[in-house]
Amino acid sequence: MHKKTLVSTLVAFSLTGLLLGGCGSKSSQKSASDDTKAAKVTKITAVGSTALQPLVEQAAQDYQASNKNVNLTVQGGGSGTGLSQVQQGAVQVGNSDIFAEQSSGIKADKLVDHKVAVVGMAPVVNPSTGVTNVSMAQLRDIFTGKITNWKQVGGKDQKIAVINRAQGSGTRATFEGAVLEGKKAVTSQEQDSNGTVQKLVSSTPGAISYLAFSYVNEKVKALSIDNVKPTDKNVTSNKWTIWSYEHMYTKGQPDKATEGFLKYMSSDKVQGSLVNKLGYISIHDMKVTKNAKNVVTK
Amino acid sequence: MDDIQKKLMSPSKASREDITGRIISYTCIAAIIILVISILYFITSRGVATFTTNHVNLWQFLSGEEWNPGTLNDHGQPQVGALPMIVTSFSVTILAALLATPFAIAVALFMTDIAPKNGAKFLQPVIELLVGIPSVVYGFIGLTVVVPAIRHIFGGTGSGILAGTIVLFVMVLPTITSLAVDALRAVPAYFRSASLALGATRFQTIYKVLLRAAMPRLLTAVIFGMARAFGEALAVQMVIGNAVLMPHNLVTPTATLTSQLTTNIGNTIMGTLPNNALWSLALILLLMSLVFNLIIRYIGKRGEIKS
Amino acid sequence: MTPHQSDRIATQLINLLVGIVVLILLFLLGDIVLSGFPHISWHFLTSPSSSFSAGGGVRDQLFNSLYLLVLTLIISFPLALGSAIYLSEYAGDNWFTGLIRTAIEVLSSLPSVVVGLFGYLLFVIEFHMGFSILSGAIALTFFNLPLLVRSIEGSLHAVPNSQREAGSALGLSNWRTIRGIILPVALPGILTGIILSAGRVFGEAAALIYTAGQSAPLLDYSNWNPTSSSSFLNPMRPAETLAVHIWKVNTEGVTPDAVSISAGASAVLIIVILIFNFGARAIGNQMYKKMTGGK
């Protein structure tokens, strides 16, 4: 008898699997057709930058609480994924750390940029190096491999271990745009997330890298550049030059539901509190603007 | 008369059952074949785009040492040289498997033949537990324990092939051990009895009978361990340093195929060269693991005893 | 050296190696459990996660991990079982069978991010399944199949031929012999396969980021309607598992207590896996005893 039960359980299992699969595709098709009607629940998917994800995710949760007719899904996947998916029309919003213009393979004129926050970045070193301030030229020489020992910039006699960010990541593009002046960075260790970089720098003697402001903690030392401190205030006036926008791209003008959410993102409700809580700088606070070619205007 | 004839000519209940069984299992294998083919096709089609669409020279790709897919070199060629990653992936996988296999087989023997009662009761669940620890956790333990230790002993940053090998050793150990236990358990008891009856010591029985009889499945265990090591990314990425440099020794930062793939794939735009080049890495990985697999199978065939 | 001396030396060597492994195990588990245990509380287990303030829990992630495991097994186990039966009982010993075996094994060395992207492009985008547990479960099936198929096949293969002959002698069909005699005998080996693959489901992160997603919308545990988008049973909702959550707080987490959340979540994960493994073995042994008529 029990052998039969085994088999019938198996059959039941596989049937449920099939059924679930069937139901799944059906229900998703239904929601896809709902998009066009816009009468019932509209589905908005935003993918891309992992750095921006927590902000959008939290904002989406708050927004949905008062707007029941929108169903927001916010996921990571990286800026590249966000840009290519929104370009293909596979998702409604592509989150990105970099300008679409800076990304080869993206037709930037087809995409509409919605800047939702500003993020400042600071060079960070392991506290054992004994350095607190460098000049912009020194910083450039460190990352291009010309300076290899901390004593050359007034620190201890210790080898410099450069930890760069992943090629093509928004953070690296911003840093290199502001610091390297088109020169090529030395081939070195690469990590792709703020958390890992922070842990590596804090544990590796002589290490240098760069982090978004919100990840700078007491275990790593943020450097001043030419005696300018990495603070939000210095970013808003562009005295601190290593910063970038966080973008939410749509393909063409957004539809009504998406537009509503994007409006909410730039409203005071998000910009006034949530943005700061998550370590970003509000776009309303900026006294300057930067374009895709890194030109800053007041 | 007709009734009997009809009864004799029509399939029996048993053979009808058998047909049902065949249909079920054939359907399953067909489904799996479709899955395998679809993913292999997917990777191959994207992986060869580097060479067909972007016209990268295959030999340059395999032998170059500069990896900078976003920029062109002096000759206007994209810098996509995967050699450092191929060498590193190869080294960490082989080293981890070489290191883990003796330990895994020892533990498996301990559970099946030396202390079958307590060994199996406590060790097995704990070892199986290790499979479920997320790679990130292994990565961070590697970052906070293994890397500083290596830095302390050898100097430098501590990241490199050695750190990667140690982390992977721990990660593949449970896979190889569990499968090895099953392999040894599957050796019929009369093999052991016969050998012991001939006056062989336990070690002689293990070495001359058990290991040989279980050889094909032990090799499968090792293959799966290596496959895991080969494909592992998140943990390795943290301890290997992730710098695309030719490894000159075991303690300088370098990068594996998977670590490079995982770090960069989210930042590249689909259809562009940097993205295609990463898929080519996946394709290389696939081909390399195929070669591994065939070599091990070949070795296994030679050592096999027919039962 | 006499055979007895070499026997002693070999035994010592094995004991030494086992000792080293045990030490590594103790260190690892001790490290994870001890550093995580202080952070586990009822509050931690029963409150939703928080994206920036301290005090978030792992309730939804824990449930998602379990739910994903169930869905994955529902999809992959029958497939693997059927295929393993084919490979061990029906397939001839020819190049085609060898090809299938090799292909399945090569599949298991794919980096998870590749499987994740494949799942993303095919299921999430092409089949309009969206970021969902179901997409995640199908992607994970790709990982599970090799290990499951091979370990089930191996354990079916290990069943002595005399058992099959006994079945045939009783006039049973092949299928009935497999179902009634061989599968029950092979059960312990099948269990190993399930437990190992379940471990991978619990621990996988990279493949799920692109398929099941890495955000956990608020769940309504009183909503038992699997088609409603806030129901905890809905397989079409995006879901963040424990392993993905650990990955997320470690890489981009901005909560002030990220370290303790990660440690606590890792310890929770270990305990859950431990319970699952022991449970699966206990149930398996029960079934084994019942089905084989052993003591």
Report on the structure:
The complex is a heterotrimer of chains A (298), B (307) and C (295). By secondary structure, chain A is an alpha/beta fold. Chain A is built from nine helices and 13 strands. In chain A, the strands form three sheets. In chain A, strands 1, 2, 3, 4, 6, 7, 8, 9 and 11 form a nine-stranded mixed sheet that branches. In chain A, strands 5-10 form a two-stranded parallel sheet. In chain A, strands 12-13 form a two-stranded antiparallel sheet. Chain A is elongated, with a radius of gyration of 23 Å. The termini of chain A are far apart. The relative contact order of chain A is 0.17. The two termini of chain B are 48 Å apart. Chain B has a two-stranded antiparallel ribbon with strand order 1-2. Chain B is an all-alpha fold. Chain B has a single domain (83-302), classed as Orthogonal Bundle (MetI-like fold), CATH 1.10.3720. Chain B is flat and about 90 Å long. The longest helix of chain B has 35 residues, at 13-47. Chain C has one domain (62-292): MetI-like fold (Orthogonal Bundle), CATH 1.10.3720. Chain C is 72% helix and 0% strand. Chain C has helices spanning 3-36, 42-46, 59-90, 95-107, 112-126, 133-157, 161-169, 174-203, 206-209, 242-251, 258-292. The mean pLDDT of chain C is 84. The chains are: A alpha/beta (298), B mainly alpha (307), C mainly alpha (295). Chains in contact: A-B, A-C, B-C. The interface between B and C is large, with 93 and 99 residues.
Q: What is the CA-atom radius of gyration of chain B, in angstroms?
A: 25 Å
Question: How does the helix and strand content of chain B classify structurally?
Answer: mainly alpha
**Ends distance of chain C:** 43 Å
- Give the fraction of residues assigned to helices of chain C: over 70%
Poorly predicted segments of chain B: none
Chain-averaged pLDDT of chain C: 84
Q: How many domains make up the 3D coordinates of chain B?
A: 1
CATH domain topology of chain C: MetI-like fold
